């Protein structure tokens, strides 16, 4: 029996053209592709011979249990299959890639991580927002607004770090997050953005201030998947007319 292997593949922030060449090569040699819900299905064009298994995870929706995903990867690879486990963004940035890599290592399964462009960088960039910028932001902090036990980050501490704040999975708590940051001393006039379906043809966004962001997002009926960006760099965003230029010709 041939030796199996698992590739933990980052698909990037949405646009399938943002796949890396290494990711394309891994998909091409895969027997099985385990694909997350947020990954654009056009990436499957690079895996024409593979069997596709949906293992989606969405906040507030029915999701495939993580334990099942890990058992399935081990089972398939143990039988000799080449498995491409493809995730949105980067597998090691809020993607549970670390958990999966540890499980595979404990089972003696070869695993190769193929990084992807994380949404926290790629989505703001599609709107012309650099998460770091000389004179405006000397750093960036990535944080999740959603945790398994319902507890949140230390917003008071984050309000004081003086970096661009990029919040994943925060749309359901956007009003509470904005209020907590203001209560901790972050100025109400701090530029802020919420960006849904970033880097894709469906991209929609609002540019506001920390004080008005929740109302602006509600008025635009923005939902998940979306990213929240807070900091002076948001003031560098493109206008709506020039946002997210497209190079795709197909």
Walk me through what this model shows.
24% of the residues lie in helices and 21% in strands. It has 250 residues and is an alpha/beta fold. β6 (140-144), α5 (155-159) and β7 form a beta-alpha-beta unit. The longest helix has 13 residues, at 66-78. It is elongated, with a radius of gyration of 19 Å.
Low-confidence stretches: 240-250
Pattern of helices and strands: EHEEHEHEHEHEHEEHE
How many alpha or pi helices?
A: 7
CATH topology of the largest domain: Methyltransferase, Cobalt-precorrin-4 Transmethylase, Domain 2
How would you name the CATH homologous superfamily of the largest domain?
Tetrapyrrole methylase, C-terminal domain
Q: Strands of the largest sheet, in order across it?
A: 3-2-4-1-5
Q: What is the name of the CATH class of the largest domain? A: Alpha Beta
Name the CATH architecture of the largest domain: 2-Layer Sandwich
Oligomer: single chain
Mean pLDDT: 91
Strand count, sense and closure of the main sheet? Answer: 5 strands, parallel
Number of strands: 10
Structural class: alpha/beta
Radius of gyration: 19 Å
Shape label: elongated
% residues in beta strands: 15-25%
How widely separated are the two ends?
41 Å
